[in-house]
Task: inverse folding
């Protein structure tokens, strides 16, 4: 079941969209649609939209599967903040967290043909910044950030407002 979706213009240069989903894989499709729409809204090219969409999808899927253990009563909250300078996406689950440094290297020869384990690598590859914050019993928060290119800033301000 989908929780809530809210959108608000923060000021003339920033747009925020917050979505709260139950931990079901089918709800990730909603996040995909919002991600794509927001990135198109700020004029990103198709390749960037596809790559960033994959990074967001991986982060949300990790929250559903690993963080919340696919327990539908637990929530994954996704917050998009788009400004003239960047797109910042925060994904929060209600899980116990994990040790990023203890994850197996997906590029290690013994892991190359495993069907899983590349999500964080993809996030780091496609985004300018990826940060993890572990909040103990309050869950895990992943922040993905993509700086927007130095295109015409007046057009971006116009698009966001």
Result:
């Amino acid at each position: 079941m989908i929780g809530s979706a809210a959108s608000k213009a923060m000021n003339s240069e920033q747009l925020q969209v917050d979505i709260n989903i139950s931990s079901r894989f089918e709800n990730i499709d909603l996040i995909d649609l919002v991600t794509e729409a927001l990135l198109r809204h700020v004029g990103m090219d198709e390749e960037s939209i596809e790559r960033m969409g994959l990074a967001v999808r991986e982060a949300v899927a990790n929250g559903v599967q690993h963080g919340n253990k696919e327990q539908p009563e637990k929530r994954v909250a996704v917050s998009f903040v788009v400004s003239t300078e960047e797109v910042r996406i925060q994904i929060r689950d209600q899980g116990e967290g994990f040790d990023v440094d203890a994850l197996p290297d997906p590029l290690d020869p013994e892991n190359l043909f495993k069907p899983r384990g590349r999500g964080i690598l993809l996030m780091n590859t496609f985004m300018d910044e990826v940060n993890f914050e572990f909040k103990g019993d309050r869950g895990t928060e992943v922040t993905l950030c993509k700086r927007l290119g130095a295109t015409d800033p007046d057009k971006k301000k116009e698009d966001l407002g």
The first strand starts at residue 2 and ends at 11.
